[in-house]
Amino acid sequence: MALTEARPLALPSGDEGNDYKPAGVFTRPTASTGWRSWVTTVDHKKIGIMYGATALVFLMIGGFEAILIRLQLWSPRGTLLSADLYNQVYTMHGTTMVFLVVMPIGAAFANYLMPLQIGARDVAFPRINALSYWVYAFGGIFLNTAWLMGGGADGGWFNYAPNNGVIFSPSHGIDFWNLGLIITGIASLAGAVNLIVTVLNMRAPGMTLMKMPVFTWMTLVTQFLLLFAIPVLTSAQVLLMMDRLFHANFFNVAKGANPLLWEHLFWIFGHPEVYLMILPAFGLVSEMLPVFSRKPIFGYPFIVFSGIAIGFMGWGVWAHHMFVSGIGPISVTTFSLTTMFIAVPTGVKILNWTATMWGGKLKFTSPMLFSIGLVTMFTIGGLSGVTHSVAPADSQQTDTYYIVAHFHYVLFGGAFFGFVGAFYFYWPKVFGYMLNETLGKSNFWLMLLGFNLTFAPMHILGLQGMSRRVYTYDAGYGFELWNKVATVGAFILASSVFLFVFNIFYSWRKSKSLPPVGADPWDARTIEWMTPSPVPAYNYDPIPTITRVDDFWYRKYGETKDGKLVRIAETEDVVQKRSDGKHIHLPSPSYWPIVLAFGMPIVAYGLIFSLWLCLIGGLIMGAAIFGWVMEPPDDPDAAHADHGPDDHVSDDGTAGELTEGEPSAEADADADATKEAETVG
Amino acid sequence: MADTTVYAHESVAEADAHAPSAHIEHDTNTGISNTKLAMWLFLASECLLFGGLITTYILYRTPLEGPTPHEIFDIPFTSTSSFVLLMSSLTMVLAVSAIERGDHQRLRVWIGATAALGATFIAGQVYEFTVFYREGLGFTTSRFSSAFYTLTGFHGVHVSIGILMLMSMLFLSLRGKLPEHRSETVEVVGLYWHFVDVVWIVIFAVVYLVPA
Questions:
Q1: Which of B18, B52, B143 comes nearest A255 by C-beta?
Q2: Which region among A313-317, A597-601, A645-649 has the lowest average model confidence (pLDDT)?
Q3: In chain B, what residues touch A667 (CB-CB under 8 Å)?
Q4: Other Cβ atoms closer than 10 A to B87
Q5: B201 at the A interface (CB within 8 A)?
Q6: Residue range(s) occupied by CATH 1.20.210.10 in chain A
Q7: What local confidence, expressed as pLDDT, does residue B9 receive?
Q8: Which domains, ranges and CATH numbers included, belong to chain B?
Q9: In whole angstroms, what is the distance from residue A609 CA to residue A42 CA?
Q10: Fold of domain A41-511
Q11: Quick check: A263 and A323 in contact, CB under 8 A?
């Protein structure tokens, strides 16, 4: 124990005195800095940062593919890409942006912020959290290695049957797509279970569900959507895998299969999918707008329940993607109606955000600009979405650029604007320095300009009848001008993304000569701003007790009788001081998540190329699971051996009497390990 | 062997003497432990996975060529193996009850029995698949055959994973690493096992009993 006390933080150790004998070459990792600390980390904050960084890398790849598409369409009869290559590029662009960029950025914020917003030390299963990230990262890399092994998938991001069969797509591209997304699906599923348990079980004292910040609520809804949507996609992809690799007949029309099965399964997943991409951004905007309007969010329960309503109704609209597939007039009418209805809860949110700003003292900082950008751009995208619910109109718009315009307005103008705004907003909390505001504002205006130049003309192109997914067009249809505008816009958009990346490095260089940002640079409302910036490993010391929504704000401000805001305490007095965290026991790092994740793409390569590789990958995974099970989730030697990762400091303080109980600690920890590992199994 | 058992008892007793009571439940907001809640959520997700496969089977259960379900199914045989699987839920409950009473000897007996019953079911499935294959129902024969083998095979994989989990628990118990206050581990594995059984009731009804 004396040794433990002497350490700067109660971080894990791998002391010789430890009774735990690692099964294999891996001793318990100990590094808290350097690359090893990132590879083995189970800290939700580091995992969140890794999610974000990886998603930005994939954003570059997906963005490059977008630029290729726009260059090809610059003029009629473009020759940059062949028809085949064009198919691969737009398929991989869509797949990358949906599964490897937007969803993971949502996961990045959920991982980083949600435990902070509910006052927890970490997520419920820190090692499974690390596993989620590594599975996502390896799955994404696997998906993109298709480029080096015969070309990417070429059937669109939805890969409709029977076009996804071996006959129509003989390269391995769709196999990579299929297996890659099964792998990232495992990551999403593990993440969903983990984050839902965290929200439901690990809130700080006093934080009831209806006192949670809106982003946490939206995370909860999003993760429930993932929990139920991902397995539907997985089941469809298992069928496709059986067809493509083992010659089953699920989509083989010659044997009486119905290709519509794929469309139904895909969109039963696919429509909740679009809501689970946008809801995290909705949550983030609901955090930013009140801060820069200096008003509480308008109608907190309405914001929350409309989010839940979107979550539920999102399951009942999938067939509006299939109006022209011949599903019959009754289905078409039903899904037209449900699609019109789902605009209502979305409209409630727009109203609430507008009303939040109404009469507020608005401060137009970069996060605020991006938030307003989301509200306006998403409204445009939402309105064009409502036009899709009108089945006769939709039948004309299907497969035209009108659809492309619509979903870029909701996913780029909606989700991505929200995410970039939140990057500016939370940057000081995460990294301890502000991003430059002047560059940030230019970033916003450049992105808004580029975005609208790229995608607004696509409405017109679509209504003029230009088909999406066709690699070229002929002169004389009136498509030339707007395609040129869109291509110019795409380059402006790309430069705005580069400006953002430049801002990161520029501000980091400048920050060295500036004073530290402090815990609460924006005068914010929710409790994550009580923690020191950047957030220490232990998050809170002590865990705060929550009395109301926007608890942190009301620690700083009170109201007079006539509703005027008065400061009741200085920010420095309410925020938490950085402590040495000695008495706080944190979950220990582990090698096993990355090893287990590494086995998965090897199995997938094996399924495509040679079943021997499956054996190797399977052995790696088996060994990793064994090591995982045998390794205690908490180093028994580190601080209070008895405590689980979910313990709060507010425990009854019985930990001390257990220090000499070595066998007990070992048995406890082992059982704990099994418990956790079996959940994965 | 006898030595191991004695050692196990000592170690368990010692662990319990030092273990805080109700360690698992005491600090979650819902009162349900993290692990158990996670298992419930995972099983909820599994419902959708099986839902997709069962729907596919219903769509494809009438083949255009090759043997039909009516010709090929041996209902008495599959009913028997289904009965065996369902009885394993009973032994699973007895195992949970045994560890909650601190009866480690019976825990091992019932866990072993559960795994053995599960393995019997799997053996029945392997036998059934072999017979069907000999009678001309290959995986690629018809839309029915692909859907049938994928759905029931998928369930078989789930049962096998359950057996592996049961064997690991048996192993841990023999090593003295499954004391009473960790009885929830057995309970959580039990949840998974019961789920796999319940899914089989649905699959058995839809695949074998409901006429196409």
A1: B143
A2: A645-649
A3: 11-12, 14-15, 176-177, 179
A4: 16
A5: no
A6: 41-511
A7: 38
A8: 2-209 (1.20.120.80)
A9: 33
A10: Cytochrome C Oxidase; Chain A (1.20.210)
A11: no
